[in-house]
Amino acid sequence: MNKAIITVVGQDTVGIIARVCTYLSEHQVNVLDISQTIIDGFFNMMMIVDYTNADTEFGAMVTDLDALGEQIGVKIRCQREEIFTKMHRV
Amino acid sequence: MLNIMEVHETNQMIEQEKLDVRTITMGISLLDCAGADVDVVAENIYRKITTYAKDLVATGEAIERDYGIPIVNKRITVTPISLVGAGCCASSGDFVKLAHALDRAAKQVGVDLIGGYSALVSKAMTPAEEMLIRSLPQALSETDIVCSSVNVGSTKTGIDMNAVELLGHIIKDIAYATRDNDSYGCVKFVAFCNAPDDNPFMAGGFHGVTEGDAVINVGVSGPGVVSRALDEAEGRDFEFLCETIKRTAFKITRVGQLVAQEASRRLGIPFGIIDLSLAPTPAVGDSVGEVLEKIGLEQVGAPGTTAALAMLNDQVKKGGIMASSYVGGLSGAFIPVSEDRNMIDAAGSGCLTIEKLEAMTCVCSVGLDMIAIPGDTTAATISGIIADEAAIGMVNQKTTAVRIIPVYGKGVGDSAEFGGLMGYAPIMPVNRAGCEAFVTRGGRIPAPIHSFKN
């Protein structure tokens, strides 16, 4: 399984998760887990996704989600999971 | 499973605290490019570099995008050119042709610097090595991204004082040859003692003869992350402070290890080492000086600076070493004056002097680095400074270096502008008492007694 972490940071508005999920479903990316919280007054959402069967390159997903974030007015990052597991797990 | 706070912490480090991988450096052996005709050798060099490193920059950029971590520099190191060119270069001008081949090849593949226009003369110079050293003013002024280093001593061999004396003149000549640009050529040259074979950082990186055909080395960074972590340690004791630095260094290094392994896998080139160094940039909040000040100094250079740096350096290594399978290079905190905002300020206010920096180099990884001095400093004084640093390295069995810029036409009170990551620096005063009779004696300083371990 190839996991990635998608994070959304910014002002909470209607439909953020819906729009991200629509994009993911259109590209065969499976959502494994979603959590959200408020950090320093900002809406923080994290998704763990499986992109093993994605019909697009990982780099294109990163770019597309970044552009989607700009449309909505939030910051969306999509990163491969290893950077987090390497840093936080021994 | 990962939690949102961990993910937030990592991204905070990248976005707010300037966590980055400072460099992916591909080391390439050029020993098989040697030959009898300098033009053929130049062509061999160009062809090998542009073949091996053709995907280096694109791969680095893909890794940046996939993991969301900036990789600031993509660089190349090569076998010391004095060895590669020994069979074909009959003059300094011939060596300059090889410098141009390096410059062209590096630009072709899109890296930002290439290192290895170097000579290892820790005991004595061969005629070829002396020719390369004498070619430096022309080579460094005519090329843009070629870096050079000369290893003038080691714990095992002592110090080659003939080379040290020569370098005083050469550094002045490089400064003059690049006088229109605040003597920028000197930024691309460093004199070493105990130079490591696998240093990924510039200007001192070269691909040592002990290395394989090609290798990927990675230099990590992150003074901003350490600085931010130290906010939590304010007012706490040394145990807490040291634990905080170690934990942070571990996290930073793990990212470097990930990037190194990934680059190695994608490029099909073996992974060499991670260089565990805190490398500052002139950006606000990316400063080793700031870390030292948060440890408790009013300004870097104050009494206590050497002790604070020794502790910082040690904790960075202790935290980082477990995070990586192979650690090498320089590995320690860098203190390049012009590249560190808080050090620039401390040098400007007079709190940080060359003598204090010299003391600091006894306990950290490199040496007198990116220090601008008056353009009228004598060659003998520069040689004396190099000899002092080399002696510290030789006796303490550590790497030391001198990257000093006698800025042509400028004096104390002026400042030099090097641009980008190289930053800017106030011209620092130098002790002007003479040492000519010392540096011109000729010969070499013998290896110290504790080097005889056999």
UniProtKB/TrEMBL annotation, chain A:
CDD domains: ACT_1ZPV. Pfam families: ACT_6. It comes from the Bacteria. Residues 5-79 form the ACT domain. Belongs to the UPF0237 family. This is UPF0237 protein KIH73_06150.
TrEMBL record, chain B:
Homodimer. Belongs to the UPF0210 family. PANTHER family: UPF0210 PROTEIN MJ1665 (PTHR37560:SF1), UPF0210 PROTEIN SPR0218 (PTHR37560). HAMAP family: UPF0210. This is UPF0210 protein KIH73_06155. It comes from Bifidobacterium phasiani. The lineage of its organism: Bacteria, Bacillati, Actinomycetota, Actinomycetes, Bifidobacteriales.
